[in-house]
């Protein structure tokens, strides 16, 4: 695989985070982005770093599309903004070196970074309360209506 | 509280008039409007807490909406009650006459004419039917109103600006409640007085 470096990256990111904790076992984060480089590099090897964890970034079907995803248990996936730093080959190897030598990791400049807003996952009852209220209301109304029909019969 | 005395003719006419008119006694009116006010005030809680429509900011909107809906809901109460009263009276007639005859002692039974007994039964039946129709009308209309508020505000109008909600939900509900009731009496549409 040819590893090219990217100059002046222009990104169009989009992100997805888990919103319902009732039906899933962990919270999932997905970041997809389109990358356009000034030097026209198309298959750039990227690595993502989120809160100290590194993940490889996969290339999508289309040229310039990249995706990274990770998951963590619901309890740890607090709501807020997660900063995802993207490193290319060079900066990634300097990052790893800094980690090994216990140097300051934050001083390594990423190629670019994306902020992911996680609104938190819903952990409430299965059925929304307004649906319950509507159903109970309709039931009571049905009773009233049938009583009225009996009277009017 | 059965009317007695020489004005028997008059009281019978009064009873019949009362039976067939849509006018409410003061007590019924108070009951209806009081209930209507309380029921109309309930959705305010909904709007305030769930859609964060501030009380102070939208106070005028709330006040207008509550008053209009109170009037419409009371109107629906009146209509439903009127429609139901006769049917209820028919159904309760036997039970009422049995109870009235039972309550009269032997001596009274011989003294009172057929006519007076019938009049008493008619009066009692009117009173019972009135009360039952009133309470049922309140129950029925409250249920219908609240169900419509919930459905309209949570499901039908979900995507509109929250300011629209009170206006449209209340107006449409109360209106629907009334249309339902401006009812088919013997095939035709009844015109309110």
From TrEMBL, chain A:
TRAP proteins are part of a complex whose function is to bind calcium to the ER membrane and thereby regulate the retention of ER resident proteins. It comes from Esox lucius (Northern pike). Heterotetramer of TRAP-alpha, TRAP-beta, TRAP-delta and TRAP-gamma. It is a single-pass type I membrane protein. InterPro entries: TRAP-delta. Keywords: Disulfide bond, Endoplasmic reticulum, Isopeptide bond, Membrane, Signal, Transmembrane, Transmembrane helix, Ubl conjugation. Pfam families: TRAP-delta. Belongs to the TRAP-delta family. The chain crosses the membrane at residues 126-145. Its main location: endoplasmic reticulum. It comes from the Eukaryota. GO terms for cellular component: endoplasmic reticulum membrane. It is found in: Endoplasmic reticulum membrane. This is Translocon-associated protein subunit delta.
Automatic annotation (TrEMBL), chain B:
The chain crosses the membrane at residues 30-48, 60-77, 138-157. The keyword Transit peptide does not apply. It is found in: Endoplasmic reticulum membrane. Its main location: endoplasmic reticulum. Keywords: Endoplasmic reticulum, Membrane, Transmembrane, Transmembrane helix. GO terms for biological process: SRP-dependent cotranslational protein targeting to membrane. The keyword Endoplasmic reticulum applies. GO terms for cellular component: endoplasmic reticulum membrane. Belongs to the TRAP-gamma family. PANTHER family: TRANSLOCON-ASSOCIATED PROTEIN SUBUNIT GAMMA (PTHR13399:SF2), TRANSLOCON-ASSOCIATED PROTEIN TRAP , GAMMA SUBUNIT (PTHR13399). TRAP proteins are part of a complex whose function is to bind calcium to the ER membrane and thereby regulate the retention of ER resident proteins. This is Translocon-associated protein subunit gamma. The lineage of its organism: Eukaryota, Metazoa, Chordata, Craniata, Vertebrata.
